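Long-time lurker, first post. I've been practising inverse folding by hand and with some scripts of my own, and I keep getting stuck on stretches where the structure tokens seem ambiguous. Below is the full token string for one chain I'm working on. Before anyone asks, I'm not after the true native sequence, just a reasonable design that respects the backbone. If someone could post their per-position residues I'd love to compare against what I wrote down in my notebook.
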């Protein structure tokens, strides 16, 4: 999480990314829409280019002017941005409601973003998710308390107490599509 926040973890960067997903591409358009100072905007755009989240594409040659376009790495931030937008829509919208509605072009329906399991497609509830150290786990302070303590004790003691079952079980009942729809309603 800390590595991700080092790239996108400030207000202006998130606002720039939001506008990128709203198809804003030019420096002057970002500045006008966001009311951001040129030095700050330039710094944030350069940071996103350096992190390969955005790429600069020339749209004019004399003088040379650039558009900022999302890279595949940048497009992968869409669920993050949509989750933040959705949280704001649910918890911060005024009496008039949401400022923007999102429509899925395939089904032509307005939607709320939901996060689902990549395996069973069930809507994820944080109370029904557990974590395990991955191959890149290095620092116990980045893990839940119980996992950090197990990591400090060592692999032999952890295996003895784990019970061996590390894969969560899917719930029986309604289809994943129906559960996703119910969670949105």
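-- Answer (accepted) --
I ran through it position by position. Result:
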């Amino acid at each position: 999480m800390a590595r991700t926040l080092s790239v996108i973890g400030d207000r202006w960067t998130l606002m720039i990314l939001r506008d990128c997903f709203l198809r804003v591409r030019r420096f002057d358009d970002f500045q006008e829409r966001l009311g951001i100072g040129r030095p700050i905007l330039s710094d944030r755009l350069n940071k996103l280019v350096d992190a390969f989240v955005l790429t600069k594409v020339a749209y004019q040659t004399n003088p040379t002017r650039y558009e900022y376009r999302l890279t595949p790495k940048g497009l992968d931030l869409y669920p993050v941005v949509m989750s933040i937008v959705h949280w704001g829509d649910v918890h911060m919208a005024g009496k008039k409601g949401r400022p923007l509605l999102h429509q899925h072009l395939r089904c032509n329906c307005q939607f709320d973003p939901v996060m689902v399991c990549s395996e069973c497609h069930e809507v994820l509830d944080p109370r029904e998710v557990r974590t395990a150290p991955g191959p890149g786990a290095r620092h116990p302070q980045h893990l839940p308390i119980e996992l950090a303590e197990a990591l400090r004790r060592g692999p032999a003691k952890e295996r003895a107490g784990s019970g061996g079952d590390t894969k969560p079980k899917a719930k029986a009942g309604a289809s994943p599509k129906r559960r996703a729809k119910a969670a949105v309603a």
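A couple of notes from the structure itself: Confidence is low (pLDDT under 50) at residues 157-185. The chain is about 45% helix and 10% strand. Happy to go over any region you disagree with.
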